[in-house]
Amino acid sequence: MNIRKIKLALTVGLLNQEAGNVVHDIQAMMSDFREEVGAYVGAKVVKMAKLNPTHVQQTYALQYERCTLKVDLISNPATNLQVVRNFSLAS
After folding, report:
1. DSSP 8-class letter at 31
2. SS3 82
3. DSSP H helical segments within 1-91, as ranges?
């Protein structure tokens, strides 16, 4: 598995992303690497913290057969705006 190639593709994809559901968009981007990462198993919220009255930080773990992608999101539930703070890929 070429982790560097996957991280680069995710970075470029997230930079070019339109407003929407970030987790769904990342799943779609990762489907391009299905042969390397395996099939999508599921996603769960690992951590949730309220930053202030309008913003929440969430950490999602997207599980694939051969790796796990953790994504830190800052979101505003009132406006449905989501911003990726950080992501990491572990095999």
Report:
1. G
2. strand
3. 3-15, 22-30, 34-37
Q: Of 87, 81, 79, whose CA–CA distance to 13 is shortest?
A: 87
The DSSP secondary structure of 56-77, one letter per residue, reads EEEEEEEEESS-EEEEEEEEET
Query: pLDDT digits over 46-90, tens only?
Result: 999 999 999 999 999 999 999 999 999 999 988 888 889 999 998
β-pair partners for 44 = 61
Segment 32-51, tens digit of pLDDT: 999 999 999 999 999 999 99
22 CB neighbour count, 10 Å cutoff: 20
pTM of the model: 0.85
User: Phi and psi dihedrals of 18, rounded to 5?
Assistant: -85, 165
Give the pairing of strands 68-76 and 81-90: antiparallel
Q: How far apart are CA 40 and CA 46, in angstroms?
A: 17
